[in-house]
């Protein structure tokens, strides 16, 4: 972990590390030398902050600026020329951050925490608000803190979130996969967040999320469902408590969190893996019941998210059911697992709104940070901290990566297939690259014979509201009119006719065998997950070895059993068969000539 990040956190924010401390301080994310409003200064405070460490007279610094984070000492009465320059700079930062930027007011360009007087702070915030209005954005003050070093005058710094929906988008969009063992409270938590009403303790909040009768009867999710939570430009929650339809939420929200509710029962593990590999979530939320601790599929889901390199944060639910000692024991158990050599994570317990802001910013910058929330869906305890975290959570990819993907040819992954009355065949999935418009001509495949068939995109919907243009990285449903549904299957791709897709029966992959009861050898059959592909494949050859055991690496040649698939070199691969599990990536393809 970057030592500067360690210094930034301090131990006071609930950041838990290994046996070595990570420095001292207020733990408020602004760096060292700050105090919270109303905190006592003097000998006692100084002795507490320096306990166990050597006193330091060095002035407090923050890490260097990044494209979406700007340091400004003061913005008091700028000239017109200076104001125009600042507004242009803000516009650039918003573009780089895909609609979001954070300003630290009262901080030198080199990161030195100087602070401003009350009057200077008010004037600076007025200027920032004018800058935001000029570029069509809104500002939200995340937090204000006093700088407390070698000064008798009260000086403050402020952290401000600036948000603007990009001109070519309806709203900012983040996808969060929800993982955890059966009965840990995943669907109930999503029901509370998206419906705006607390649960009654018997699972009432989750009823609106279930898709099948047997799910309502058993109370267990067996399929993948999607739920949306919006935030407006001021950071206020927009959900079904104030909006009757998804269209109203989309219109009111400037930032949208799409939750992918996955199954917790081991029986539905293939559905959970499919949701993680095909829907390309930005983040994963692991829900752990405080009363049960780490049981069932919890470890497995954590391992899957880490194998697929999906950043993960943890929610300990049902804290209303058990005493504080039980909750604390569950959190300590999680911390031990996260610090193990296989995980190498730094747990950060979120206990205040200040911690939530720090956690959101550092979580996106450092993959080793793992925020831990403890909350209740019945009493609503600490639920607001999770909302603050989700509101501030920035997108992982920047605008440059997004533009590069949009300039490529169209490629849409087919994850779901429906037949809708009066509409016809509808497919759901994610646009991996390019741009897709209404009326566009695409080809879909491969079929069992390895061919691609032509079709027309009649209409597009995102989050149940109409959309004319779909951009790379966005999930949507596409109406295909009278196209024969029987010709489609999950795992297909819809691509531009100009693309020359590589179709193959045979492919090679470098794999690591995570677990196998005996030996992994030629002729062994496994279920392979590659993106939205889920199919049985046979091991045709192990290069340089006769067999594999748990923990060993090898390059393996696989052959699909049922039909050829569209693959790319470098794609992440995950395979399973019973207790056998392994991960890897595709290294080479043997294309079929069309």
Automatic annotation (TrEMBL):
Gene3D superfamilies: P-loop containing nucleotide triphosphate hydrolases, Translation factors. Residues 37-51 have a biased composition (Basic residues). Residues 11-32 have a biased composition (Gly residues). Keywords: GTP-binding, Nucleotide-binding. One of its GO terms (molecular function) is translation elongation factor activity. Residues 1-63 are annotated as: Disordered. Residues 171-399 form the Tr-type G domain. InterPro entries: EF-Tu_GTPase, GTPBP1-like, P-loop_NTPase, T_Tr_GTP-bd_dom, Transl_B-barrel_sf, Transl_elong_EF1A/Init_IF2_C. Belongs to the TRAFAC class translation factor GTPase superfamily. Classic translation factor GTPase family. EF-Tu/EF-1A subfamily. This is GTP-binding protein 2.
